[in-house]
Amino acid sequence: MASTKGKGRKSATLRVSVTLPPDVHQTLERIAREKKVSLAWVMRDAAEQYIANKWPLFARPEGA
Prior knowledge:
Layout (H helix, E strand, L loop, with lengths): L1 E2 L9 E2 L7 H14 L3 H16 L10
Antiparallel strand pairs: 1-2
Helix pairs in contact: 1-2
Protein backbone atom coordinates (compact mmCIF):
# COMPACT_ATOMS: atom_id res chain seq x y z
CA MET A 1 0.00 0.00 0.00
CA ALA A 2 1.59 3.27 -1.12
CA SER A 3 1.45 6.30 1.09
CA THR A 4 2.31 9.89 0.30
CA LYS A 5 2.91 10.64 3.96
CA GLY A 6 6.46 11.25 5.09
CA LYS A 7 8.05 14.42 6.30
CA GLY A 8 10.27 15.93 3.65
CA ARG A 9 9.92 12.99 1.27
CA LYS A 10 9.13 14.03 -2.29
CA SER A 11 8.13 10.60 -3.61
CA ALA A 12 5.57 8.15 -2.31
CA THR A 13 6.72 5.86 0.47
CA LEU A 14 5.81 2.27 1.17
CA ARG A 15 5.00 0.71 4.52
CA VAL A 16 6.73 -2.61 5.15
CA SER A 17 6.71 -5.12 7.95
CA VAL A 18 9.90 -6.87 9.03
CA THR A 19 10.69 -9.54 11.58
CA LEU A 20 13.83 -8.94 13.64
CA PRO A 21 15.61 -10.98 16.27
CA PRO A 22 14.94 -9.50 19.73
CA ASP A 23 18.55 -8.38 20.21
CA VAL A 24 18.60 -6.50 16.89
CA HIS A 25 15.29 -4.82 17.72
CA GLN A 26 16.54 -3.78 21.16
CA THR A 27 19.74 -2.35 19.67
CA LEU A 28 17.80 -0.37 17.06
CA GLU A 29 15.45 0.98 19.75
CA ARG A 30 18.43 2.04 21.88
CA ILE A 31 20.00 3.83 18.91
CA ALA A 32 16.69 5.60 18.23
CA ARG A 33 16.40 6.73 21.86
CA GLU A 34 20.00 7.99 21.93
CA LYS A 35 19.54 9.91 18.66
CA LYS A 36 16.05 11.08 19.70
CA VAL A 37 14.51 9.82 16.47
CA SER A 38 11.99 7.12 15.63
CA LEU A 39 12.84 3.47 15.12
CA ALA A 40 11.53 3.86 11.56
CA TRP A 41 14.03 6.69 10.95
CA VAL A 42 16.91 4.50 12.17
CA MET A 43 15.83 1.65 9.90
CA ARG A 44 15.45 3.93 6.86
CA ASP A 45 18.86 5.44 7.53
CA ALA A 46 20.42 1.98 7.89
CA ALA A 47 18.81 0.77 4.65
CA GLU A 48 19.99 3.86 2.75
CA GLN A 49 23.54 3.44 4.09
CA TYR A 50 23.50 -0.26 3.18
CA ILE A 51 22.49 0.54 -0.38
CA ALA A 52 25.09 3.31 -0.67
CA ASN A 53 27.84 0.95 0.55
CA LYS A 54 26.86 -2.17 -1.40
CA TRP A 55 25.53 -0.61 -4.60
CA PRO A 56 26.85 2.97 -4.90
CA LEU A 57 25.24 3.44 -8.33
CA PHE A 58 21.81 2.97 -6.73
CA ALA A 59 22.44 5.32 -3.80
CA ARG A 60 20.24 8.39 -3.53
CA PRO A 61 22.07 11.63 -4.26
CA GLU A 62 22.83 13.88 -1.26
CA GLY A 63 19.87 16.10 -0.41
CA ALA A 64 17.38 13.99 -2.36
